[in-house]
Amino acid sequence: MQSCEISSDSTDDPLSSALHRHRQPRIVVIGAGLAGLAATKTLLENGFTNVTVLEASGRIGGRVQSIQHGKTTLELGATWIHGANGNPIYHLAEDNGLLEHTTEEERSVGRISLYAKNGVAHYQTNNGKRIPKDLVEEFSDLYNEVYELTQEFFQNGKPVGAESQNSVGIFTRDVVRKKIMLDPYDSESIKKLKLSMLQQYLKVESCESSSPSMDEVSLSEFGEWTEIPGAHHVIPAGFIKVVEILAQDIPSHVLHLSKPVHRIHWNCSSHDTEEIVDQADHNQDQRPSPSPVCVECEDGECLLADHVIVTASLGVLKKAHETLFSPGLPLDKAQAIQKLGISTTDKIFLEFAEPFWSPECNSIQFVWEDEAQLDSQAYPEELWYRKICSFDVLYPPERYGHMLSGWICGEEALRMERCDDETVAEICTELLRQFTGNQNIPKPRRILRSSWGSNPYIRGSYSFTRVGSSGRDVEKLAEPLPYIKNTKAPPLQVLFAGEATHRKYYSTTHGALLSGQREANRLIELYQYSFRAETTKPNI
User: Fold this and answer.
1) How confident is the model over 450-460, as pLDDT tens digits?
2) Amine oxidase domain: which residues (predicted)?
């Protein structure tokens, strides 16, 4: 496989000059999502020329997947730039003119909820009735008040009571239920309606957190996730444009698509390397030079490296880490992978010839009145559709036509993925008829949906801090191998990037990008230090 031999205008830079004088370190980046591309771009810009990117799928972008639909773009993956002030994704988009056509409906200030925008959310019950707007606002104020309480445990060091089992869902359900039941002014029917709305809000929160249920999200850690100030933005031309900007200066021969990795051998001796290469039947006239890392691809090719940056998702690491690394990962890193959470949040796009919703309606929220006392949001397999929390109206219609975007998460999302398009379209149509009370709603003329859970190279949407995990597990996942205390081994053989490795910004695109830059900077600092130490050796 060719290395990246590119000319550099920065040879006056001490690091670039040193890299030109010495053997270039061989670096393999696994994954061409935002983290992998950001790492590669940073390395190339700093004079590293022997860089190879291996992407298992046939496209770049990872969990960014923009699909062209007529004259518009639909996002199967990342949709929002979360916050503007200091967000590298925002500045990349702004500097390259990607936000010039973003409408007011595609900007949101404050805590967004899925596809939030202008207009009014219609909360509809399974009996076909719309919940009055003032009642929705009253409940929303109560829910948001309790949501703020969930942030205090981490932010203020508030102790977590045993009755909550350190669960955001259990705590929220318990506190909100008590407040509803103690309200002396509400009738029993209003109380029941508010309890049903609580279940719907928790489903929305689960989709936003990409957790199977908010019961699984850690209460003591929930407030550590950090929101970047400023408005949230949609990129009309597609989030994939950010990916393309990151990739545009990466030479094509550096990037290898449809190249899944079978195993990463690290801490290799010269004998180990020769043995691995021989077993892989790697056609090489000369014996391999000593390398601490050997990346074995599924097609049998072996790449020798000094460093490998692994940007595989947490879902892939959960499924494959025991066989992906040889030797296996240290116990504490394997435990961090096990403890941290990742689940699936999927979108279901439905296109209609004409809107059946009113002009001011921005979403249809599904409230099941028979779930008022439900303590678990895990459903039998045949009732997977009950986890669909809402359908949002895509704005503006001049761009998107008459399009709804549904949301589903957890195991129920995986069951949806196993159904065919026709089945999902029929079920969604029946739900819309049932909840709006309009039996004349036609079947959509087109359906498009994501399938992040069953994608073997992704296995989930994004990470969350599960009950029993903490930010320390995120840091442990991000820690390079071998650990620094092992001073005899070559340093920084295996580095880890991706949204799940960013303690403050996990689950976000900017977290992914920053993590890739972070790992590239580790290598930049390593070689700056090495070359500086070499040039300052005393003459003996």
Assistant:
1) 999 999 999 99
2) 34-524
Q: Distance (Å, rounded) from C-alpha 172 to C-alpha 162?
A: 14
Q: What is the pLDDT of residues 382-439, one digit of tens each?
A: 999 999 999 999 988 888 999 999 999 999 999 999 999 999 999 999 999 999 999 9
Tokens for 535, please give them.
Answer: 């040039």
Is 0.85 surpassed by the pTM of this model?
yes
Question: How does strand 361-367 pair with strand 120-125?
Answer: parallel
Query: Residue 499 is part of which domain span?
Result: 24-63+236-341+459-533
In a domain? residue 375: no
Query: How far, CA to CA in Å, does 347 sit from each of 198, 207, 324?
Result: 22, 10, 30
At 462, phi and psi to the nearest 5?
-165, 170
The answer to whether residue 204 sits within a structural domain is no
Q: How far apart are CA 270 and CA 160, in angstroms?
A: 52
Structural domain tally of the chain? 1
| 243: phi then psi, degrees, rounded to nearest 5 | -60, -45
Residue pair 36/29 in contact by the 8 Å Cβ criterion:
yes
Question: What is the rounded CA–CA span in Å between residue 428 and residue 102?
Answer: 29
CATH number for the domain including 485?
Answer: 3.50.50.60
